[in-house]
Amino acid sequence: MVHIVIDLEMNPIRRTLKDIRKFLQDEVIEFGAVKLDENYLPIEEFQCYVRPEFSEITAHITRLTGITNETVADKNTFEIEFQKFFEWIGGWDMKIYSWSASDIKQLKNECSYKLPKFDINRLESQWIDVQKEFDERIGLRNNLSLKYAVGAMNRDFEGTAHTALADAKNTAAILSLLQDDEAFFKTMQPVIDMLKPKELSQSIGDLFPELSNFKFD
Questions:
Q1: Which of 4, 22, 103, 138 has minimal CB crowding within 10 Å?
Q2: Stated pTM of the model
């Protein structure tokens, strides 16, 4: 069995397309994924841009991801790139992971609309939310962003946030750490201690100065 860590970047469908937005509100514009072996060690990467079919890329998404309309102008549409992605996975003998449930929700909607013959329910059954597992493991009630989860691990974020492959790589690093309870709790103990209900003058900003803007999302 292999482990696939995926991240998607998306672009909203313009509001004037009301008939389409009843079924699909965003389109994938980038896939990024890391394939891990049975020991959760990275063995292969996948990245591609996707040309949206219904809307140009908004200025907000360009600021967030760096992806422009020129970036995707000559790229394939979702149907082709998703099939390439699944061929890269190599079949159903896998578990698939992402940071939060937003990516599987997007694939469910987009596959249902554009690839209705694909068994998206089977894919969903093999999907694991790493953010949820991370938050539950350290006792968080709110969702911690990927950037700050990596920072809480006292680790530099690899690459640029909101680029699909970088986000997948950083999620994979967290997933790997989650497999070793001893290493995980040793790494995360300062944060866990800070979250315990006791009189502590320390804040997470004191523990990790680089996280002075610590936030949940």
A1: 22
A2: 0.87
